[in-house]
Amino acid sequence: MKGSTKFISLMVALAAGVAAAAPTPNTTNTQAGVAITNQATASFTDPTTNAAATSASNTVSTTVLALPSFDVVYDDGTADGNTLANTPKVVTGAVPGQVVTTDYDIVNNGNTALTVTLRPNTTGSATGLDVKYLDASGKALTPNADGSYTIALPAGAGGVVKFSQQLTVPSGAPANATYGASPEASVTGTGTAAGQNGVPTGSTLYENQTVNAGAVVNTPAQGADLQFVKITTFQPNLVGSPNIANPTNPVGPDGTTTATPPAQGNASVPTVTPGTANQPNPTNPVTTAYPSTPSNPSDPTSGGTPIVVDAQGNRQVAYPKADNDNPSTDPTIGQTNDKAGTPDVIIFTNDLKNNSTTTSDTVQLFPAGPDGLLLAGTTYNASTGVFTLPNGVQVRFLGPTTGAPIPVAPGALYPTVTVPAGGTVIYRTEVTLPDPDDSSRIDPISVIVGADSLKDADVQADATSTDIINSAAAQFGDSTDGTLGAAPTPAPVQQVVPGANTTTNINTGNAADNVAVFPMDVANMGAYNDSFTLSATVTNLPAGATITYVDSTGAALPTNGAGNFVTPVVAAGSEIKVYAVITVPDGTAAGTYTVSQKAVGNYSTITMTDLNDAIQVGAVGNVVVAKFTQDGTTAAGATPQKGINNPSGYTAGNTTVLPTKNIVYRIIGKNNFNTAVSGFALNDTVPANTTFQAASLTVNNAAVSKVIYKVGNGNWSTTAPSTGAAAGTVIAVAADVNGDNQPDALPANSTMELTFTVTVN
User: 258-277, pLDDT tens digit by residue?
Assistant: First the structure.
């Protein structure tokens, strides 16, 4: 092999990858299933303290319905919509048994996740062509019983799924034969209600089609938007594997020095079944494992990160713990998630066997893509031996004994090893991961190690082995219904009455008992299962106060030896809701008490805090706020909140809405004090994924002669907020009958009602 030839081939491949425009999914419309949640407040002067105060409503939620559409396109940007006869993708001079792999993308043009059925369309092809579909890692998809394939297509910014079509020319293919295929995709309707995919039941949605008025728009027609590959007709013997117990004739990269792989033994990895209760140590023992020696001094994993070997699957999986947490950037709020830190380093041991019994082989190593070529977008620094992948992950190949980078041999492009006939080379794969914060879901990271013989004329892997890293990530904080993750805001305030009856439910809307209830999300944003230990304190609460964490049924979570509470095992990429239930005893002084909560990953070691929830202990009377959403069907009083009945046609329950339609809220503030409450105003925030439309006000069901408004931190004014105000805009509304341009007092036992309208993006 001539190094210059392989280098030119590589540059052509990389140039083609750079030139291709990445497909863009729909991120304009609000995604189906998104819960548009909203909570209002009343602001006033507390008559018992003469201090400014607020009261929060219940939270209401409206779910966005699905508006589906998708397309299958060539990954390199080539225009689709062709047949076998006129496709621009043509391979000539193919030989029997030749494999042609083409990359595609399924692009989500709608606002909902879809289950896509994929079938090969071989119209015009000679018989005998073998068609397979591979995922982005190069692993073959498993066909369904009818020969189709199923691909899950996310929505939003992640709504592009890469896959490959692998065509294998029959071993007995004659000369001048024509073969070819195109992926053809469809989605079967599950219905147009909430939680369904937006395609009418009994209907099928094909590429680039849409749904309008509850029916599929059959344009373009089925089969009119395909993307064919055409083939017309006219070997190295390497096997890669993970670290195995007894490799054949093991040697180092130079092909002569004897090398010994790490011994396999027992390791405990976080694989306990999700939902399993009382697991302070959520691990199972595995015998085919070995520890990766920590390269990072802050690695908290004693003895190194466990790496589990799956020799039959030709892969190995690492389960690193998290680094020590960084200090919170806002101690008043807490640390909802792990902060960005020092890059993590995991070291795998890989084997490469030469099955030839007569000839040694010189082989170069590199991170490979699904096509066996250098992973697209990867750069290589020959002076450091570092490959930098598109996601920022760095890879080096090291000697098994010295730990030094493996050099590049003459005529090669990448680190090179020599594998004797019938022998096995042992080398290390060092993977350095960026350590971002846990504000987003962290998926497993796969590195496909490609091994390319220098005895052939290409730079394409002749054998591969996969190294996978399951990283830790988590969030803990106030519950965010319908969204994976937690939030440090809105810092809910729970009102309680010392000496009132203690309730045993998890109702956050009962302000007449001595129990404060805080819904909290424990979100596992990482790639392995974990359980979490929970604890809480409330400063200055007198003796007799109790703090308990319960599940959604009201049952207390089990405790560990220190008396702290342990969640069930939480699956990777999911969350559970727990409730901090705090009882306030007799004799508690009026005032605000701050609740400090902490969650610690029992395997990952991630420590998170929520420090700004509060308990408001008041005097006689209170102000309550209830919020309802217009649905046009609910009877008056059917869904009361905080002692306030819902108006007819409004509900406190969940509702649904399509993009571009309005949501109408009714916010009712009630003065339960036995005296007027001065400076009374109702406040609302334009929810995420919406824009403001209008606001109107009544007091005791009567129109107000003068209404004043305040936007954000501005001044009070008779000018109503502008239509189209963006999400996040805070709007306050009050009565000003006395004309002093300040909110009026609300009389005892009176109500103020705000109708607040927004449009869904």
Answer: 888 888 888 899 999 999 99
Contacts of 18 (CB under 8 A, 6+ apart): none
Name the residue type at position 247: P
Average pLDDT over residues 430-451: 87
Q: What is the pLDDT of residue 332?
A: 67
Instruction: Give, in order, the Cα–Cα distances in Å from 659 to each of 64, 722, 748.
Output: 7, 21, 41
User: Nearest 5°: phi and psi at 13?
Assistant: -65, -45
- pLDDT bracket for residue 14 (50, 70, 90): very low
Give the HSE-up count for residue 58: Cα atoms under 13 Å, Cβ half-sphere. 26
Across residues 554-572, what is the average pLDDT? 95
DSSP 17: H
CA distance 411 to 312: 33
Other C-beta atoms within 10 Å of 716: how many?
17
pLDDT of residue 757: 97
Whether the Cβ atoms of residue 212 and residue 200 lie closer than 8 Å to each other: no
In sign, the C-alpha dihedral spanning 538, 541, 542, 543 is: negative
Residue 627 pLDDT > 90? yes
pTM for the structure as a whole: 0.54
60 closest CA partner among 664, 708, 717: 664
- Report the distance separating Cα 603 and Cα 566, nearest Å: 12
Q: What are phi and psi of 291, to 5 degrees?
A: -85, 140
Phi-psi region of 249 (alpha: psi -120 to 50; beta: other; left: phi over 0): left
Six token digits for residue 83? 């047949």
Torsion sign over Cα 126, 130, 134, 137: negative
Residue 83 pLDDT: 93
Whether the bond between 444 and the residue before it is cis, its omega within 30 degrees of 0, is: no
Decide: helix, strand or coil at residue 374: strand
